[in-house]
Amino acid sequence: MLLKLFLSFLKIGAFTFGGGYAMLPLIQRDIIEINHWLTESEFLDIIATAEMTPGPIAINSATFVGYKLSGFWGSVVATLAIVLPSFVAITLLTVILNKLKDNKNAQNSIRGMRPAVTAMIITAALSLAPQSIVRPVDFILFAGACILSWKNWLNPIYILLASGVVGLLFGFI
């Protein structure tokens, strides 16, 4: 299991550009659809927890998935696997980009990747929404969080805490 976990998260880390949110669709596909290690509900719980804890969401997600599947060593293996490709790539890219910092083609290539990264983030949100927004209060929380975070009107930590409190209150009703 540890080897499968390592290879799965190594692949996700190696073939995703754009950060943690861009990795979520790949993590979801690999963990739920391909390997059937977790249910969508379990994955959503992990994403919610990963979002609330300090650190990048993809690394936190890998850590939590690894722990859920194989305990402490699973979390270590999954975390190392998802970080390793980025560490190697950043080290190499730093050397290369320092040599290409004045090259217009290199700058245009990176600018061209931005819309694709945005599309991957939106895809992750759309694929998680049907499982996340099931009650009217969920939609209200979703809309409120979007509005408050869109213009940076409220710190994301307060949005998450308030949403958790509202979710707790409505869980009793």
What is the compact description of this entry?
With 173 residues, the protein is mainly alpha-helical.
Helix content: over 70%
Shape: globular
Query: Radius of gyration, Cα only, in angstroms?
Result: 18 Å
Q: What is the residue-averaged pLDDT?
A: 86
Described by strand count, sense and barrel closure, the largest sheet is: none
Number of helices: 7
Query: How many strands?
Result: 0
**Given the helix and strand composition, which structural class is it?**
mainly alpha
Spans of at least 5 consecutive residues whose pLDDT stays below 50 are: none
- Could you tell me the strand content as a percent range? under 5%
The N- and C-terminal alpha carbons lie at a distance of: 41 Å
The H/E string reads HHHHHHH
Number of domains: 2
